[in-house]
User: Fold these one by one.
Assistant:
Number 1:
Amino acid sequence: MGKKILIAVALILCFTMAFTGCSTRKKESESPNSNSTTAVGAKVAPVGTFPIVKEKQTLRVFCAQDTPVENYDTNDFTKWYEDKTNIHIQWEAVQGAYMGEKLQVKLAAGDFADIYMNSGLSESQIVMYASQGAFIPINSLIDQYAPNVKKMFHKVPEAKAMSICPDGNIYGTPRVNESINESFPKKMWIYKPWLDKLGLSMPTTVDEFYQVLKAFKTKDPNGNGKADEVPLAGAYGAKYANNEINGFLMMPFIYYDRGTNVYLDNGKVTFSADKPEYREGLKYIRKLFSEGLIAPDSFVQDRAALQALVENGPENRLGCVPAFYWGHFAIENGPSGRDKEFVAVPPLKGPTGLRQAYSRGSQIFSNRIVISKVCKIPEAAMRWADWFYDNENMLAEGFSATIGKEGIGWKKAEEGAVGIDGRPAKYQFLMAPGTLQNNHWNQTVGTYEDQNYIFSVAAGTPSSRKEVFGTSESKEKYLPYASNKVVPKLYLTEEQTGRLGDIKKSIENMVDTYMVKFVTGTLDLDKDWDAYLRELKIAKADEYVRVSQDAYDVYLKNLKK
């Protein structure tokens, strides 16, 4: 009997230990993905007070390596902001060329960072992984811990509408920039010394532009006795969207957004690349190409080739080039000084009298800062991110996430200095944008750069020329013809994404391929146009427009919230 009792006791003890062990293992397996309880010692300080947490906490941040930033770990702003917030950042910065692949591999493996910042997360990735619980909704976090984000959403309702997913939640905060210069990315630049030498006026119509290009080709404006002038050249590919020939030159015929091939016509999503007006635009560009006024390499080369035309040799060889600004085809503040000799061509009037500038309004880059489910201190993470959305406060504290420390990246404007809008300036750049440095994070963060902040930079310094001269050219030449018909980036439901599949990419590739063939003469615009339209129909262009319209209708509803 004694032996039986001992056996029973042993069984009970084993069962108890096994049960306890199972219970412990379950809690351990749940804890990495639980954000219901704030990490020990991470109680968040009231909004507006610092440090954010009493005991130092660590956040893992996955981001794109911004080219001008030397090292995020040793960066001056990294160290300063850690001291201010008591939050240490463990960085994983990935070079742009590998960003998409690395991001997808890590997401698929469930290897989540606490925060994704400027990580290239697409709308479809947000929807898919949010539905699986990988990213947390931040609606209530914004209400409680992000007054600067709330203020931005109030001032720019489009930014909020573009941040709301199909399930009604917000999973990421955007970057918003109200620069007038950047509102007009598809400009055309012309080498003014050639206009002056040949006694030509600035072209204002498509016919005048054609005549100017002919003069550049035949009248030796660089004066070297050689027929080496290139009247018009561009670059091609996703990285050089604003350098593409068909951007600026299509606008006198039809509103054209090469990345989407759709535009808004009285609130309706409309396909552009099948319209008679689009065809007329192709005919015009074909005419320029057939007469040798467009460099054949424009459909294959990169920006380095454009820069070579401008900078290499004793004289400039390039007459006109489409670009956002001169730094995309010349050496900014370079030894030749030729970057300063290009000026913007105003929007051209087309054969029907249409004259419009491609305008995208405020620059809104969605999902700049996203918090994942593994973050133990989401409240603190939200407060950490919110500070970046107050540029005035950053300047007041003497250290900005995007332009660095006072005295190194910028300084307070001198007395009497004037800003872009003519009012007294507040700050002045000491470091040219794009300079390699280890003082700030450049454009890695989500920010709200409103016009008051942008216009308060001191004019007249080399470092401010991009914004000052770019704004002047945009306000004078483009703003009077601004036409914002761009379809915003839209969230699609998983069902809509499934319906589209590869349709959008297939259509984009098809339009691009036919465009090049029509312009270069490989295909005939009269004989082959109907075949092109049939291919678009087979590719389901109509379905693409229907789905886009459904998603845009949801965006309009969100805009009213």
Note: The longest strand covers residues 363-371.
Number 2:
Amino acid sequence: REMQPADGVVAYDVKSERWTDGFRAQRFVAIPGNGSIQLGDGQQPATYPDGTVFVKHLVRPASAGGTGRAIPAETQLLHYENGRWQPYTYAWNNLVQGDEPYDAVLVDRAGADRQVVYGLDPRQQLQSQSWHFNAENECRLCHNAASGYVLGFNSHQLEGAVQRSATQHVSDQLATLAAEKTITAAARIAKDDPARLVDPTDTTQSLDDRARSYLHANCSACHHPGGNAIVSFYLRRELPFDKLNTNKGTGIGTFGMRNAKLIVPGDPYRSVLFYRMSKLGYGRMPYIGSRVVDSQGIALIEQWIRNLPHKSSDQDSALVRRDSREARLLSQAIAGKQDLSQASAGPMSLLLQSTEGSLALAAAVHAGRVPSGGAQAVYKKSPGDIRGLFETFVPEEARRKTLGPRPQPEQILTLDGDVARGKLIFFSDGARCRACHEVDDQAKSLGTTLRQINRKYPRQSEFLQHILQPSLKVDEAFRAVSIVTVDGQIITGLISEQTDQQVVIQTADRKRIALPKTEIEVMRKSDKSLMPENILSDLTAQEAADLLVYIRSLGASDKP
């Protein structure tokens, strides 16, 4: 159900929405007394009266025909109190039958997981999906000083015509907010403003504006110049494409894709950004806030990357072409009216032999060019780097019972692992342990080798804790560092050597880069490990136990 604002509470909407797993967001702001918000202008940050509250209310819409019930999932609050923003989350009791009233309870600071139940039609059986209510520290990953705390209430998101609610359309929201005295003045956004946002679903806007607005809304809270030191590229709208730092590999690995980079102009299927937003499980982006792949967003970003300017004569690889092998095989599968149930033979089976081919196929399913029938069989038979691409097409109850993002150590430690199975997992995944760690060769390993890690953590439980919480305790030598050079280049990794004249960085793709200190504009260390979080999230408890016992077999003897 839609929330109706009380007296003194003002509804507003934003130009470019974040994807919220199929739920629609209603937004409100409340300001005590006669106060007003002064929006930031690019030079000065926004200012807010003490006691200001921002509200985001997430509702599952009723069916397209207007039947059924609109079901609330959660209500998020940001409260400005004594100069500090405090996040709160309320979970709605939506297990509603008949006329039983709705209610919401405050979620514990540690967060929570539950099933959200909704009805598309009162004549049909209720449906559900898993839902994660963020912990307080997860809220602060996006809402922090570097990002400006309040992400959507700014001139670029508020300007122009918006639909504030099902019954209220506003032709000029900034002017309306100023007239309501919610803001002090109505700033104007020039049409050529590089930070200007558009509605990503508005096909009258340019493809580049739509895609960049989508990435800004969904990714730039972390991927911005003031972000954490482990962030190695940017997705802010106002930055030109050549300043995004996406023409490189990624520290988390390339998931089996050949000649991959963060974004490969002309070839979405070797673009790690596109891969990670197309999958579920380990390596998925956005990192928090979503557990359902946005099919419409996938289609938009695929089209955008394919149409990015590129020179076919000046590419790193002949694989990066519009007439790539994947595109040809996909065209054959579509022409033959194949669906995923025919994946055991023909062009579809060839696509599924590689990560990039599987990504092309999954993108076609999202776009509706290939039916999703048979996805469950593909999902069950595929290796880890490919499986996550098809998980979103499989009903939740039919998916593997994986550890998920919040595993408990006892789920793994109570199981007996198998070394042979663990070795298979270790060598079959292109972006897990072996992406960074060698067994013995320190020169090729990012940070310590696996044998050294085993010696450092002789107890099984301590070793597992390091994997599950890599940033809990980070040795100074292994703190991620981010360097911005005077010409705007961003380099992220570990400091390998440092003198009065230069710094040598070992990057996540195992390159060593020597930088004269005269060329370094900014160098900052992170309090987070370069090792990714949730590295076991897409494994079952048994698979995690198998992988653990294999890695332990490479080093010192274990003590319980």
Note: Confidence is low (pLDDT under 50) at residues 313-320.
Number 3:
Amino acid sequence: MAKELVINQTHNESRVALIESGEMLDFLIDRSSTLKDKPSVGNIYLGRVLRVLPGMQSAFVDIGFERAAFLYVDDAYIPTLDEQREMAKRIEEKEKEEARASLSKTIPDELSSLSETVDMKYRPDIKIQDFLKEGDEILVQIAKEPISTKGPRVTRHITLAGRHIVFMPFIEHVGVSRRIESDEERDRLKGILESIKPEGKGIIARTVAEGQSHKTLKSDYSLLVKIWKDVQKKLEKQKAPYEAHRDLNFIQRALRDITDEDVDSIVVDSKSVQKQVDKFVSKYLPNMKGKVSFYEQDIPVFEHYGVDIEIERAISNKVYLKSGGSINIDQTEALVSIDVNTGKYVGRKTLEETILRTNLEAVKEIAYQLRVRNCGGIIIIDFIDMEREEHREMVFTSLLEALKKDRAKTNVLPISGFGLVEMTRKRTRDTLTRVMCEPCPYCEGTGRVKSVTTVCYEVLREITKTVKRSNGARVSVFAHPEVSAQLTSEDFEIIEAIEENYGAQLVIRADNSYHIEQYEIFAHED
């Protein structure tokens, strides 16, 4: 199956799509006009603590941007070496218990924050005010970029990601990506990592480390150590806020993080980006040499590969399934709700079979949409109710399998008695809809406006209130044309009754510039 990385550059917008056999596995977009537009994941800053919040067990940190960064206690506390080793034992015991109980299924990302690698739930009972105070200068790293009105989230658990490994200067830990399933290969990699890392440091083998030699991993580690030493040297004479390390740019991060050994080609539609890609490939991805090509056709590259159509589907609330069914996706600040419907699909045999087939088809589309949209936080999936336990198990198993393609960490609970699946998905950047869309200026993002009839009755109540106080004065009403039209037609008898009862003269005028819910009522004192 052909696997291609397609890169599109339009002025200051960069778009990257990973495609396999016509299916988009991943999509990334960046619209930074300069590298310093925003704090990106992986950047390291010397920050100053602005405020410690004991009630929230968190702190705000000035890292040099308009919005202060948010630091939670679990990301702020760096345990001692002895505490780390004790926590590692507890985590191992806990994982064994959960594996036996099989209560949930977790599909981790190899670049999870350190508070997940060494689970800080088992840290000593310590409060943030015990080790952090206002004015402290601390080294932090961006763990989550600014989203909506929120500032970036930061951590003191520094990680430096290379092509094959992740280096952790403050936490002692040896790990291997769980996407590497072979026990023999995992043991081999652990042995190499143990021989490379010094005491008190941490190192994790990424998925692409599978099959790599000791020399390759050692070279990657040495490069990351050099970067860390450079960071420390920069900090010797600096004061907060200060940017100590900037991670790779958008295109380079995409090449590093989503270009695996299975990618057959890299297609680029910009000469300047092609030079950048060639340079990066030559230095870090030698196996990709000769696989970078320039796209020269008249049809835009994303249109040629069908990516533009998929993006349009990914910013729509309703997504249709091939069978005729559909899924509705509604995103709020912290929760995503997904509803599965049979739609036009009526099946060929029984109702139960129709429901099962629709749910199974929806599973693949849901996993795909979560990746493309970069949905995060709590996700609730409302599958069509299934009576048979074996059908529910089939759908749940299919969902877990579909989520294996996702690079983000997901945690999924079994289908409940109400046919709901509760899951979480880690998100480190803004959702696709927030990047590409903005709230409707007419409805202000609610998705609804009051009906003309509702507005008319509001106007009539306000008119009555105004004429009672005006003692027979002339009253002018300015409203949207549709509201004005109904007031002077269907509701004209009510207008006449008000004039007669209160001795008022009502003048109703239409104004095209008015919002449908907007109106103004003036009483003339002449």
Note: The longest strand covers residues 44-53.
Number 4:
Amino acid sequence: MKIFTKTMLFFFLLSITLFFSACVENKARKEEARPQVKVEEMTIPQMQEAYKNHRFTVRQVTETYLKRIRNLDQEGPHLNSMIVINPDAMKIADSLDRLLAAGKDAGPLFGIPIVLKDNIDTHDKMACTAGSRALAGSHPLHDSWVASRLRAAGAIILGKANLSEWANFRSSFSSSGWSGVGGQTKNPYVLDRNPCGSSAGPAVAVSANLAMAGIGTETDGSIVCPSSANGIVGIKPTVGLISRSGVIPISFTQDTPGPMARTVTDAAIVLGALTGVDSTDSKTLASKGHAYRDYTQFLKKGGLKGKRIGLYTAPLGKDYKVDTLMYRAVRFLESRGATIIKINRILQPKVEAASFQVLLYEFKDGLNRYLKTLGPKAPVKSLKAIIAFDKTDTVELKYFDQRLLLEAEAKGDLNSPKYKKALATMLRGSRKQGMDKVMNENHLDAIIAPTGGPAWKTDLVNGDHFMLGSSSPAAISGYPSITVPMGFVQGLPVGISFFGRAWSEPLLIEMAYDFEQGTHYRKAPTFKKTD
């Protein structure tokens, strides 16, 4: 009887084992039979068409991007573009699939995976740190305007991307794409090259196809420089077109979020989802009558024909390889019917010095105000406390100092006569006597310039090695700028910037799109170890 019982138990266990084995094999076959999601270089319209035709689900797309992040960002070439992955990403994807099944796939960004620079608040399980260990574990009490608009548009926030700490407003010298929380982000084209910053993480993630789009922020160059260095499109909008509510600030006068994508089309789609008047950001009041919810209407081939475009020559003459690409771009613009007029100066002489003083005053004021929004559980409650934290931390001052934090802390409040004088000098010399004057006198539709040079080798000893840039005229005036790939220098991408008057995003998109469609310089990175 005992032998019989043992025999029956053996066959019973064997049958269970075989049953579960068959289930696992059947599940594996189903997984293999599912359509493979090829996300590389896919555009938002292509992705939405695939959803519409039920080629794949939002879950499948999200799984694919998360797998790429594991394989390329956390392992493999270890791009290190992401600080944290949204633990609820799959749950959000499943909720969107239910909407899709019910025929409710509304929203211009439905099912589109997007990453946010980690100075943009999300009210969820992800912290918002600006890359500083002083804010590790800081959980905002509300979504930022940007996060709220993305969710309403149907996007999936995949995670928070690395950045130059405090959006690169901290040190006397630093390495772009380095933060105390996230470490050093790599350029996906050549891994020992720098991604530029401060929106390094979103730029690298988008370029490497770890997300369909990213949201960066710019005070001066922080969207356009990393976009250029990583071979993507970046739009730095007019200040006030997109609310800064819930964005860790540097400057009330110059800060703006903006979209980063692989194509002008995708960047335009994301831009439209983010516009609107926000009562908590007074700068957005001026956008009324100037903002659009759909910028795809300005994606027109032939948009360069008849345009008068200024060639800003100040960044030229520093790198003959960049100059060669720029003059090739000029010839293309002329072949499309544009007239090019050389201009050698835009900003008045004292503007950049005045801008720096404005940033110091506004950083102290804005950061202290932001920290109050975190409530009683804020890890630190003032700029002064952040400075004190850094002095005792083992990482924060390992490579770079905090001179700009100290200089900002030493400033008075925004009622200071010195602040008001610097602000007036900056605005007058960058707008009425700067961009507006140059464009009006030459009857220009836009101005072009190389966005920057090819990426330099990352150097944690000596910091960044900038050769050239053209971001300041648009950044200091608060006017819009768009960068688009214009070619490569020894395998490293370089962009061309189109910038112009306040609220001229439609015109700039039209021209940038025509340039992009006529050249197609964008190429996916191959993660070369070194050059």
Note: The radius of gyration is 25 Å.
